[in-house]
Write the structure tokens for this entry.
Amino acid sequence: MTCSRRDFLKGVMDRALVATLPVSAFVLLSNDEARAAVEGSKVRWAFLVDTRTCTGCGLCVTACKTENEIPFDAPVTRTWVERYVLTKDGETHIDSPLGGRDGFIDDKIRDEEIDPEDIAKAFFVPKLCNQCDNPACVQVCPVGATYQTDDGVVLIDRDWCIGCGYCIMACPYGVRFFHPEERVADKCNFCYHRISNGMQPACVESCAFGARQLANLEDPDDPVTRIIMTERVAVLKDEYGTNPNVFYLGLDASVR
Amino acid sequence: MKWHVLRPLWVAIGIVASILIARMFFVPDDFGVHGESFTYGYYRLSNVQEWRDFPIKYQGREYCIECHEENVQALNSSPHVNIECENCHGPGAGHPDDVEHLPLNTSRELCLRCHADLDYPNGGRTLVPSIDNRRHGRRRDCVQCHYPHDPREDVE
């Protein structure tokens, strides 16, 4: 048997290449694993609000303030509930005393008595940060203290924020405020400490009517994601191009 | 160029250099562009973990059932099943080791958040049994008559 130097070297190279191939290179990926390998983050947090079942109890606001250490009696809150009463003459009456922290137990709106016979429809609209795909508040930050994480939540770096307030003015939804104790800008972050540790946001957990739900848009099997994808949902202020990620079921055209 | 023209230039260069050197000490190492976009991803990376470590206050009923099984079972089989324990009892963090008694809210106002009749023709409030706050109960606390863990039962 003859073997030229060329053939011998070629053979050695081929076998060396095969030997260096890891066994894992031949493992077949499932669809989900392949998608994860290509896209990176497997999480995109979103939110679903059902305005048809919200009773305006305001327990979400109470829970949010306690969970996130927002001064309870200060007129600032990360989430709030608005009451809309539309009368038959076309007027819209809106109020949200203390952000709905103590619920709505009186039918007076801003000290105004409305005859029940005149009411066409009445409903409650919970609001919170929309964790926009294109967050205007992040664009305007001059120091890089607010940013978007891989899973879509917009956070504020309390050590880095200088409290200039640009972001508070930039948000079209008015969800940002100045934290009176931390002396920085603050807003809802879907309870990032809870959802990152496998729990539900405080407002979702405290809601007895399922009016608030958290969704992972990257998971097609998530039941809430399925509702967002298949039901008729709306977002607030679509015309601003912020691509908000809080979706509303049964949203009325009068809601601003 | 004459020397007296160059001199302020050296001062300016010195100021810029000192700012750049100071920046090296004050800006954290992990501050920079993370992810795809500079516009939305220019931040201090360790802050994400700081937010993840924020203390959790509300524990959920799985935590309560470990000791108060009887009450949680009563709640789970009642029309109040969807109401979390901590909505009335207060957040359970630190209980029972550090916080012996939770701030229980038994007020009439708490029940009225859902059960006050606002006389609306539609909307979420009409889905809940409601009372006329001015007539029913004469301003007493609801829990004096109604058992909150199962409102179908009266208090003995």
About this structure: The radius of gyration of chain A is 26 Å.
